[in-house]
What does this fold into?
Amino acid sequence: MKEYDRLDAAFYDYYSLGVEGDVPFYVEEAQKAGGPVLELGCGTGRILIPTAEAGVEIAGLDRAPSMLAIARDKVARLDPAVQGRIELVEGDMRDFSLGRRFKLVTIPYRAFLHLLTGEDQRRALRCVRDHLEPDGRLILNVFDPRLDTIGAHLGSFGSALKMVSEFVHPDTGRKVVVWDTRQYDPETQAIEQYFIFEELDGEGQVVNKTYSSLVLRYVHRYEMEYLLELCGYRVEALYGDFGRGPFRYGREQIWVARPRP
Ligand SMILES: C[S@@+](CC[C@H](N)C(=O)[O-])C[C@H]1O[C@@H](n2cnc3c(N)ncnc32)[C@H](O)[C@@H]1O
It folds into this structure.
């Protein structure tokens, strides 16, 4: 099954809730920039829609048609003035050309970790640079990897299967329980993450079971800093949370960078 295909996309808004405080942070940064904003890996519009509702013009690019279909559906139900501030584009952040520049480009909620090689990461960062105004900014967020978590799974078959959340199925009204297990490969810095969605009837019997998987490549703090510098950026800030607190090991990396002249 492909990442973020029809089924993952349908459940995405119910089990993938973002990082605490990220939506107001991005909305505030977008207002500060004054628009236009470009969000790469915009998914179902979790951040894009509140940004447009706050009065900022925003384009969202994503490579998964199913995620974009859900975003489009939500956008179609918005006030026409808000709709007018939104553009959705199917594309790949490693290679896109929108023919215009932006005051702010964001890559929220681990979307950057879908780039699995150094070359892909560099291609995306250079492409972003080509879409930034000279005084524009890039903001991207990835988690900060914990060596103890990775080390704990070395030589084993991966993490235990854990129940991570539950939600009400949007169509059937039944409870869906989400299970998650991961494998880490420190050689490639890859995390293979498997999800199992179990839909239960009133008796607790599983009536439907679906699987999906994702591969991410984690990045360390200084790797990300050097990567930004290599691709023509000057780092303005590294926050550790969306309250703009300092970087702390094992939490979040929230990078704010400007293109170097
Ligand atoms: C974790 S979701 C984040 C969605 C949204 N930004 C949010 O915060 O809810 C990651 C998104 O990145 C998209 N994505 C992954 N690789 C991509 C690529 N190379 N180019 C464009 N989009 C990509 C996926 O399709 C998915 O919608």
Remarks:
- The pocket of S-adenosylmethionine is lined by residues 4, 18, 40-43, 46-47, 61-64, 67, 92-94, 108-111, 114 (CB under 6 Å).
- The radius of gyration is 19 Å.
- Residues 62 and 90 are 5 Å apart (CA to CA).
- Helices lie at 6-15, 22-33, 48-53, 65-76, 80-83, 118-130, 147-152, 221-230.
